[in-house]
């Protein structure tokens, strides 16, 4: 089944959470370029009035441009652009799940792992829990920590720091200094953008913490979906030479992948799982809740 066929087979559900509904709209626009309000209503199972409110929300935050009777997707051009946390977690979910599963296969029993707060790293943590092996985790992510706290075979450490309003991760001191004092087996991190051999983030605080994480691990895995091969974010946190392996999905731009492999970086590309199946499971989980 092609990607459009998967979109058409999504369960129609008015009660989808706003972040999931808006993510579905963005995914539909990513695949089709533009869409009418009726198309988006059919895709999400919402009413036209709900779609209009969602479109206004997404336009205000720089995701979309409105057209007469619909919308089309914008490629964010601001270096400091950050997607809303809940919305970002649902975007390209099929790709993130596949990347996370591949990354989790790199873990061995007894490993110490430093984890950043990216949504793709969160999927690696979910996949690692299914393996049920003892691990020591260090993370600045409140979401990862909340999930990991229930895994009995894991030891969880949080570094401290400050929380920005609207975001569920720690940054700054004393966490940055604490991270620099560690000697972990592995670091898993995401990036706002991969541009040539440059890795960047949208905020100074997060970039500084990523640098500390990478310098405190013997090996670093970069987990990024193919949309992250893009113009640079606001600040650099490292060069690709500091990364031992990049794991992305098979939608990654061939030229971008070739640039990484040209400097002898290991690049692993995975095939996304069924997007329709993921959404169906997500909806059933909401029903059970």
From TrEMBL:
**SMART domains reported in the protein's UniProt record:** DeoRC (SM01134), HTH_DEOR (SM00420)
Answer whether the UniProt record assigns the keyword Ubl conjugation to this protein: no
Tell me the protein's name: Transcriptional regulator of sugar metabolism
User: Which InterPro entries does this UniProt record tie to the protein?
Assistant: Carb_Metab_HTH_regulators, DeoR-like_C, DeoR_HTH, NagB/RpiA_transferase-like, Tscrpt_reg_HTH_DeoR_CS, WH-like_DNA-bd_sf, WH_DNA-bd_sf
Q: What is the scientific name of the source organism?
A: Rhizobium leguminosarum bv. trifolii WSM597
Gene Ontology terms, MF aspect? DNA binding; DNA-binding transcription factor activity
Could you tell me which Gene3D superfamilies the record lists for this protein? 3.40.50.1360, Winged helix-like DNA-binding domain superfamily/Winged helix DNA-binding domain
Alphabetized UniProt keyword annotations: DNA-binding, Transcription, Transcription regulation
Top-level division of the source organism's lineage: Bacteria
Q: Where is the HTH deoR-type domain?
A: 18-73
């Amino acid at each position: 089944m092609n990607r459009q066929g998967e979109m058409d087979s999504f369960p129609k559900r008015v009660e989808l959470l706003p972040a999931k509904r808006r993510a579905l709209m963005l995914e539909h626009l990513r695949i089709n370029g533009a869409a009418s309000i009726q198309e988006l209503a059919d895709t999400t199972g919402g009413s036209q009035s709900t779609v209009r409110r969602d479109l206004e929300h997404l336009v205000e935050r720089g995701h979309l441009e409105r057209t007469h009777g619909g919308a089309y997707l914008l490629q964010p051009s601001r270096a400091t652009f950050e997607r809303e946390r809940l919305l970002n977690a649902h975007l390209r979910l099929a790709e993130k799940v596949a990347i996370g599963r591949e990354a989790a296969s790199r873990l061995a029993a007894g490993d110490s792992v430093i984890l950043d707060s990216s949504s793709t790293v969160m999927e690696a943590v979910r996949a690692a829990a299914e393996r049920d092996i003892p691990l020591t985790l260090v993370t600045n992510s409140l979401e990862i920590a909340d999930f990991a706290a229930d895994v009995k075979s894991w030891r969880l450490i949080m570094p401290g720091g400050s929380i920005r309003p609207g975001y569920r991760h720690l940054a700054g001191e004393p966490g940055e200094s604490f991270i620099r004092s560690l000697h972990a087996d592995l670091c898993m991190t995401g990036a706002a953008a991969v541009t040539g051999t440059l890795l960047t983030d949208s905020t100074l605080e997060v970039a500084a913490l990523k640098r500390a994480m990478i310098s405190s691990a013997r090996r670093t895995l970069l987990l990024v979906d193919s949309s992250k091969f893009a113009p640079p974010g606001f600040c650099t946190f490292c060069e690709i030479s500091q990364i031992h392996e990049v794991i992305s999905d098979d939608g990654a731009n061939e030229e971008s992948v070739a640039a990484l492999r040209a400097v002898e970086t290991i690049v692993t590309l995975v095939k996304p799982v069924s997007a329709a199946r993921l959404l169906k499971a997500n909806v059933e989980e909401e029903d059970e809740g």
